[in-house]
Amino acid sequence: MLIGEYHGKLSNKKRTSLPKKFRNELGENIILTRGYEDALILVNQDMWQKIAQDVINGSFINKNIRDTSRFLVGSATEVQTDKQGRFIIPQALFDHAQLKEDIVFIGLVNWIEIWEKSKWEERLQYLKQHGEDIAQELTKMTEKNNG
Questions:
Q1: Which member of 22, 41, 53, 94 has the greatest number of CB atoms within 10 A?
Q2: Residue 22: its pLDDT value, please?
Q3: pLDDT grade, residue 93 (50/70/90)?
Q4: How many helices (H) and strands (E) in the chain?
């Protein structure tokens, strides 16, 4: 399971090393793409197939599906890691996440987010301040879907 928080560094060539725990769980075929809140998303081939299937099954007539496809699929790239799990983050994705030297990998069960460290700290502060409100909204959504 992809869980946990790991800190990493970026070289001046935009290269970083995927934490070993995540490397073992993701396998060799991994996809890197834009994420929300200025993060990047890293998934394995199986999860990417599920995302792609949602895009394929969606109607291109629907503006939200087109925009989501553009955002996620349009920026996706297959990542090649070396024996130490190092990979290069393409410039467009590097710019999207506003990455600097210190980054954070966050395992979220099915995917990994990569954050610029200061942006992650800001987001974490937001989550601490609004966690109860977010939980209440999720409860309302669950009740609505089950009711």
A1: 41
A2: 94
A3: very high
A4: 5, 8
